[in-house]
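Record pair follows.
FIRST:
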Amino acid sequence: MRRFLRGAAIAIAVAGVVDPAIARRAAAPRAVDILMPRESDPDHGYAVRVRERVAAALDGRAVLDGGHAPDALIAIGPAVPPDVPGVPLFTVPLVATPSLSIHRAHAPAGLHGQSAPVAVTLRGIGLAGRTTSVVLSRSGTAVDRITHYWKADDERFETRLGFVPAAPGLHRVRVRASTSGLDDPAIADVAVVIRDRRLRVLAYEPRPSWPLAFVRRSLEVDPLFDVVATVRTTTRSATRGAGAPPSLSALQADRFDAILAGAPEALTDADARALDTFVSRRGGTLILLPDRPFTEPLLRRFGLPAFDEVVLERPLTVQPPGPLLRASELLLPRPAGNGFETVRVVRHGDRDRAVMISVLRGEGRVIVSGALDAWRYRADPDASFDRFWRGLVADAAAAAPPRLAVTIQPAIARPGDDLTVSVTLRPSELTAERGVIEVPAVEAELHATGGNVRKDPGILGPSDPRTLGIRLWPDVTAGVYTARLRAPRAGEYALSVRAASTSADAPLLVADDVVHPASAGSRAATWAAVTSGGAVVTDVEDLARRITALDASESERRTRPMRSPWWIVPFAGLLCAEWALRRHGGER
């Protein structure tokens, strides 16, 4: 017996020295990564609650966000899934009933002194019979509002709210939509970029023209416009203002955003060629204000349709929307003529006919006013001659592309949000020789401009605390570059781009409480879910069953039992028992 006890103790000691390993294969718990929308998304709070429900439904049957290679991905709401080959993707759309969401809120870049329109698109689900109040506010003060009554259970509503900025720069405005019966309002922040510049307009008359003379007077009293004029009184003499070219052959295309030409039938071939270059190469807008029918060469030069001259005893009024204009002598384009876009119409006879048209030509466009004698009715209380022409010319001049255009979307973001930079060089800045297009070098930098970020030495990078170089990638279109980056820390920034002899910039505002419009859902994510072996799932319990049904991966596990400290108990017990038997037999 004593030998057995001693041998067992020795065996334990030897096994402890050898330290044998035992290998076995076991099923590893399923690893699942849950992808969430960014905190700037209005659905983030709802997505957090859905994630809690998903975790409760799995109930420990999967390891969530384990940090290693996942067996499945779950994208909740507008989360952007990564490209992980061989891993099934399950998307969980966020649809609640009743609900209200802001799907789009956008404001184009405007000019100081003009009202900035904010376009808003709302979607209401299960809100039939309810009323929504949409408020546009700046720094907590309401600047515009509108009310909408929902008539269907799934309805979209588009509206425009106005905002008049007090100063140029980037302004943050907030759209807040509150609905009766819903606790949480829909919120979205919008960046309104206001430029401080005047619209440069040239009024050119190859002979004195009444239509252009009164339009020019209307623009000259508005500080938004920088108007210069050239009026040829005879073939050898002309009256021109400071900065106006003596003739169109001496025209500097970049000097003006729009050109108004009166008496276009009197333009020379050289004048027509210069105007055509301004439109097709510069991308500017040419507005023709005739007082008699066009000549055939001029129609061919600018690709205009044929016109019918109509003289009436009583004036006609252009149809809304927009400011009204009246005229009794009209040039109406024939419907069977060249393609054109209708700008305004009049009711002539039993049908509507275009009285003002726009024709695309190269990079720009040509606008033709067929209201020949509208200037006669400028004092008519039923018309708005000045407002009509100021609005038309302002829109035309603002649409002229600069030599270098820079945009950053979104212009207002939270730290860490994805930003897209777009840089476009005007075609006139490119050089084409022998079928090869030469593009000048383009450089981009992001600068911290706000005082709150200058004090932080690590805001952008270690080399320069206030500057970050941006790598631009060429697009498929010559002269177009794009870049993607993450929004830096909260503060005010400016994206500066330089190319050859020109430069441009775009502002960026980063704040910790920015809320973006709700995502309408990603078709790409839906397609990825189906093709990866996953699915689009709306029920949390169904999602848990699908995750559990996935084949669990097996792993080989090695254990070393002799490393357990509990082996000291039997080892000591065996030695004590052997010692006790020896003492009982009279041995030491």
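SECOND:
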Amino acid sequence: MLLFVAKAYAQEIVVPLSQNPAYSKPGINAFKSKKTRATLPFIDDFSYEGPYPDATLWEDNKAYINNTMTATPVTRGVATLDGLNEFGRPYYPQPFNSGLADSLTTVPIDLSSYNPASGIFLSFFYQPQGLGFAPENKDSLFLYFKNDVGDWIRAWETRGTALQGFRIVVLPVDDVQFLHTNFQFRFVNVASLNLNDDVWNLDYIKLDANRLETDTVMNDVAFSAQPSSILKTYSSMPYRHFIANQPNELSATQDVEIRNLYPFPNDVTINLNATESVSGTPVNTQTLAPVTIASKSFTQQSLLSYIISYTAPGNKSKVVIHNQYFYPAVNATDRRRNDTIVNDAIFDNYFAYDDGSAEKSYFLVPAINFPAKTALQFTLNEPDTIRGLMVHFGSQAPTAAGKYFSMVLYKTLGGATTMDSVLLQEDLLQVQYESSYNGFSSYAFSNPILLPAGSYYIGIMQPANFGSDSIYYGLDVNNNTSFQHLSYSVDGTWYTSAINGSLMMRPIVGQVFTPTRVTDIIKTEGVALDLFPNPSVSTLHLDSKERYKRCMIYSMDGRLHGIQKVEVNNTIDISGLQTGNYILVFTDSKGNSISKKINKL
């Protein structure tokens, strides 16, 4: 936290991730294949689903294969090196430690049939920072070659800098010590070992013979950026709400980006096949007129959005529109894997602005004695039942697991002379990091309500002065919706967010769902302590086998109304409180806490 003290007065703070949720998604495993010795040409542009490298080419899993951590990629997909290991967790979960972190190591490559005159060159593109945080000057990216006696020889290095576009490096592999049956090369970064700081991205790695040092040309045409969504406002929403207002929920176009890496122009014909993937029902097909892409440049092409006439099996059925974009190969020798790209539009039981990937973490710095509040706006196009909230909590050290918060649904947010219009509030919830809903924890209202069509706000309130740190939220920086839809409060006043990105909170509507299981990290309501009389006018008495040292009194809006010692006479004086409901948090000498709701008459 000391690293970011200078930013504390900004109230909204963005920091690197200390855990990568992509590695915790159910069903995600490294590529499984029999290890074989590679031959030339050796090429990987990482245009496939991650998070792990292709095991037919790479022997370790520490690099993060993704399409979200980079700015202006060469082709779709990069290999990201940072301070998180192959499980998406810190190499060393304490602050202020740096050292050798991620690596990307090839399988053995047979170069025994080549000689120094074979013109073998290794080329690759690299980029510092991308959409993460920049490596500092003391942080480095190294490249090593393995020689014929098993030693790793440093062949290239660069120091950390601020964000730059991708740069190409071309290196000869012409020393006889490298021309053997088990040649390998390895990228390694020096980084902070406790978070995804000091980010390096690698793209389009190529090792081949008969090249020159001036050979910076990749004879390929490829998709680069992820296609834009068919939805205008959300990344995901319930299908019934989409159908109820389809003209306003559809984006005008779907934009795709194609890069021509050839040294001469090429013509490309872009196609779209859209199907409902649950049922396999065809939805739409399109073919654009051929477009000429200039040499070593890119073009953005737009396909017109289409009306979806698919009828779901039920009113609350999940619908997935699978959009596949592709073009015929420009040349027979082109890499075909990057000639196709997909973008699924998921219609389920929640509203989402984020794309499901967290590139950074977000938290609030509240004023003393004020709660920290977030409120995300969403709109119902027809009446529906609000059920709860999905949240991706950013990992932090020390962990926030078990910290208390309230989930709040608002009709309107208060102003200078008006109060918040609170429709529902669920208290004494705890932060969780379980891998449900693809990295999201889910929380349910005990008494859900049917809402009429219209706009609402939902969010989290963390009580004032509670815990050592604010709660961290995952922040998707590929979609920028915070300014339009996110509000926050740290001093009793609501502000419009100024952060670039989308906070990873998703209101849940419709059918009943099973919330994420709450682990018993902190003693909960009704355990080990009783308060009487409750309701009370002036004094509460404690009945407990445990010995509690202090009691913190919070109003239902999260404000702290006092701290009292209770270890002497086991009583709490509430005579000075106004009539209403409060939350009392008791703490023992070991730091264990228990909370109780009380009513002041």
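COMMENT: Residues 368 and 569 are 29 Å apart (CA to CA).
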